[in-house]
Design a protein that fits this description.
globular, 29% helix, Diaminopimelate Epimerase, Chain A, domain 1, five-stranded mixed β-sheet, TIM Barrel
Length: 540
């Protein structure tokens, strides 16, 4: 029997309620209260003196890509690029220092043309030819929805002179009709295919890099889209993670978000017993979760589907990556099999369409499978009211504001921007809200994410009063979205996401009191200890 007691803490129980001590047995909280309330028997087991520090529930990222986090950490850091020349320099320097990693091709992700100080455009094949003409170079935009490839990659694909066509994506050309190396959405896979795939040994290494990074930053649970949306076969990812958790090698709690190529692919997976396989561990440690679908692209890449054209790109309404008919087919199958769906939606047209898909499979106006929206960025008030009325949960990424607040008004206009990223309004309407980072699109460190929700300022503190500050939330609301809100997506809100009796003993001891500090300090907070299942999983 494992017993744990925390003393002398500021333990967040729920809004307005704090405790001094907490005690747990075999990974489940038994009680919270004052120091003197802790039963004497617990003093003989593991005892942690918090020294007055703040303790919050373990943070639960509602949508990320854990293996890709580890992969990104093994690539050139092109997210730091401030210009086209700087981008080229970063990748060339990385390749020179890591010849074994780049001998068969160079892949990285994270460039953002809107942060370039020179030309604010996507890199073309000719830019990337400055890095190499001998091996393929494939660099993804920070959002993952736009990819740039060099001439060698186009040569391998046989489209260095003649463009190709891909449903649900684009292969762009220059003014002469020659492919310029820029791919979007469903076409991105072509560019990625020019570089030899990573091995399952790489996947295992990258999984642990990502998991350890998450634990170090106070994340105790992830809802991760790795199976069906990575460089590795879906079944191979499931088998790999089953082995890791069966062997008890990872304390991080993991819930799958699984992608499928088509409704028929989903049907085959289900009917072949895909969801019935033994994951080899307690379902509180690893479990199958929702189907993960993609309806559109990104705001930064101007591929999120909009009701009205992008103001800074007339004639462009975005890219639909899954048709309405396909979405309906997925939803009908999910309803038949009792499976949850979560769908990537950025633009207001994508959100409106997917809400309609969901509504067509509601049961007497209820959403028992908790079909949800991931991102849900560009909205007006009627759309928000419709989401709340249909009880559709939303998985927000407040950290996206750090960049998007500089792009959304030029792209969508002042009025629509004022009702977008509507964290407070949607919560006030009664919708279920959770937070995540979509890492590695953004860093999975949760504290800059909470900072963005609370202040609606970028990393420099702009704008002074916040971006449409009526949508700022308080710290407790942000913590709740990251904990009990994320647990709701997992149907675990009765046992996960609170520091209360009968809840899982997952918690984080912080170096700063997040509830009383200057909001500008929140982004710099770090854990000093992360506890999962009543055991210390990481300690500073």
């Amino acid at each position: 029997m494992r017993k744990l007691a925390l003393f002398n803490g500021k333990i967040y129980v729920e809004k307005g309620v704090y405790a001094q001590a907490l005690w747990a047995e075999d990974g489940v909280i038994v009680g919270v209260g004052r120091n003197e309330d802790v039963p004497a028997e617990y003093h003989a087991y593991e005892v942690i003196d918090c020294g007055g520090k703040t303790v919050i529930p373990g943070l639960n990222d509602s949508h990320l890509h854990l293996i890709q986090i580890g992969t990104r950490l093994a690539q050139a850091p092109i997210n730091q690029a401030t210009s086209m020349d700087h981008l080229v320099e970063i990748v060339k320097d990385f390749a020179a220092k890591n010849p074994a990693l780049t001998a068969r091709g160079i892949k990285a992700a994270g460039w953002n043309q809107d942060l370039f100080t020179d030309e604010k455009r996507a890199p073309t094949r000719w830019d990337l030819d400055r890095i190499s003409t001998e091996v393929p170079v494939v660099l993804s935009r920070v959002c993952g929805h736009v990819v740039s490839a060099n001439s060698k990659a186009l040569e391998i694909l046989g489209m260095d002179k003649v463009p190709g066509h891909v449903d649900g994506g684009t292969i762009e050309v220059d003014e002469k009709g020659v492919p310029n190396g820029i791919f979007t959405e469903a076409a991105n896979g072509l560019a990625h295919s020019t570089i030899p795939a990573l091995t399952l040994a790489d996947a295992e290494q990258h999984f642990f890099v990502g998991a350890n990074y998450a634990l170090e930053h106070g994340i105790t649970s992830v809802q991760s889209n790795d199976a069906g949306n990575s460089s590795y076969p879906r079944d191979a990812v499931i088998d790999l993670l089953s082995r890791i958790y069966r062997e008890g090698r990872c304390p991080l709690r993991y819930r799958y978000q699984i992608s499928f190529d088509s409704p028929e692919d989903l049907r085959n997976f289900v009917e072949s017993g895909g969801y019935e396989r033994d994951l080899g561990a307690d379902s509180n440690k690893i479990a199958f979760g929702p189907i993960k679908l993609f309806k559109d692209g990104s705001l930064g890449g101007r591929t999120g589907t909009m009701r009205h054209e992008y103001l800074d790109d007339p004639g462009n309404y975005g890219v639909e990556t899954t048709t309405d008919a396909e979405m309906d087919a997925f939803c009908k199958l999910a309803d038949q099999y009792g499976l949850q769906i979560v769908t990537h939606v950025i633009g207001d047209k994508a959100i409106e369409d997917v809400v309609g898909n969901y509504e067509r499979v509601l049961h007497e106006g209820k959403n028992p499978l908790r079909h949800a929206l991931v991102h849900c960025q560009i909205t007006d008030l009627p759309l928000l009211e419709r989401i709340a009325k249909s009880d559709i949960p939303v998985m927000y990424q407040p950290i996206f504001l750090d960049y998007d607040m500089h792009a959304v008004i030029p792209r969508c206009g002042e009025e629509l921007s004022s009702t977008s990223y509507a964290f407070k309004t949607l919560g006030d309407l009664g919708a279920h809200i959770s937070y995540g980072t979509d890492s590695p699109v953004e860093n999975c460190n949760p504290f800059p994410n909470i900072y963005s929700a609370v202040t609606r300022k970028d990393k420099t503190g702009w704008p002074e009063d916040g971006f449409f500050p009526q949508e700022c939330v308080d710290v407790e609301t942000a913590i709740d979205a990251y904990t009990i809100g994320s647990a709701y997506n997992e149907f675990r809100e009765d046992c996960k996401g609170r520091l209360k009796p009968c809840f899982l003993a997952d918690m984080v001891v912080l170096d700063t009191d997040i509830f009383t500090c200057d909001p500008m300090v929140i982004r710099d907070i770090l854990p000093v200890m992360t506890i999962v299942d009543g055991q210390v999983a990481w300690q500073k």
